[in-house]
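Hi D.,

Good news: the full-assembly prediction came through. Inputs first.
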Amino acid sequence: MSARKHKLINRPEDILGEMLEGFCAAYGDVARLTDNGLVVRAQPKAAGKVGLVIGNGSGHEPAMIGWIGEGLFDVNIAGEIFTAPGPERIVDGIRAADCGGGVLVCVSHHAGDLLNAELALELCEAEGITDVEMVVLYDDISSAPKGRESERRGTAGLFFVWKMLGAFCEGDGDLAAAKALAEKVRDNTRSLAMSLSSCASPITGEVMFEMPEDEMEIGMGLHGEMGMGRQKALGADATIDLMLPPILEDLPFAAGDEVLVLLNNSGSMTLMELFILYRRAAEALAEAGIRVYGSWIGPYATTQEMAGFALSLCRVDVEMKALWDAPANGAYMKQA
Amino acid sequence: MSHIGSAEVAELIAAVARRVGEGRERLNRLDAKLGDGDHGTSISAAFALAVEQIAVLDQPEPAEIWLATAKALMNGMGGASGALFGTLFLKGVAPARGKGALTKLDVEAMWRAGLDGVKARGKAGVGDKTMVDALQPAVDAFAASDDFSGAWPAAAEAARAGAEASAAMIARQGRAKFLGERSIGHQDAGATTIALMFEAVQMWWETRE
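Then the structure:
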């Protein structure tokens, strides 16, 4: 497996705009592209509710444009490929997400996302925009050791935060409660990713990192950041047996817990492989006495054509299960 | 020359934009070792945007030119680099406010404020393999000279040496930190950009004198 240097695009500088135009043309019932390049809900939520906004680098589709819609996020500020949007665009997003109940700016923890959100909040303060809070989210256990959770990266497991937080903000909870809920889901979520191949930057056409044919990297970040190290590629069951125990130990997840499971496709894994991987994960969770409340298998946060997956677990309680089960209508997250 | 006015400050930014533009592919190649390989493309585009936005300012003071540069870098580039290079110029605006011409001490205060801002926002110090490894020595060397004619070459030399020294370091900030020891041997792209910036200013200064 190798990186695919030739992508069916037009000009590299037009990728972002053309992708967003195509997305909104396809899913106009759910999301709309504003004149200033924001992806917003086609049907705004009712006045007085907390608005949810997130800025992120592009190249990870369907995250996060696919998560704009009822029961999910209000506004996505899509940056250039793998590049967080700048502070003025984030402020535009905050303005667009404001429906009178305050705005929660969500940050999937990476240096660029955090620094630009901080700058945006300083701009808001200077411009007298109040009732804005920021929440920093992370889940990747390979990016910093236990005890230093706040240094970890935000990766695929934030899926659970987006879904539950989106459902929560359809209700009457206030901004502080929304932030607390986001932190609660974050603090019950752990992820670990692996990769078998690299990918090419759609901007430069260059391979983002070298990956030998017969090796795999455990702990790969969403942009090909290095993780725990390389080793010989294993089979499906052995790979799960390598990845699941550190996830379980980290929280820790214990017998009697109920969890949601995400097997996120990083790009070019086949569903066939993911089902085989899930089979062993479900078996191992059952052996550990952990009950699976729900599962999701598929591409959510991708890294171009990278072949790999992330395994994410979220421990749920009654409140979180209700939020998980609540309706959602985004282009890539639909639930009746 | 003991002062630089708006015309010179605009020329300085234009010189930086040209030099960074010439270094685009080299910066991309360096970034590919530690980042996602587009630092040269994004920062050269952002400096080009700064030059465009400065050109439409109506009789700007030096501080407004610095602010336009900060905004172009932050908003034109995005990412951690946009925030940090933007902060370098944004924090330099206050020391220049209200001044039609800048002395060497004014410019020193602008760089110092920018450096402090970058360190605070990025939580990086010397030795972390970031732009600070070129910027800190450049600002210190600039401050140690009495006039522009001594300060610019000294800053350029210090920035170049600092950027080269970054190759031997282990990255402790940004996405490169996840490489750990695998980051050794590669020069930091952000530090290299700082070195190119000061080299450009020195070359521009030589043509002025």
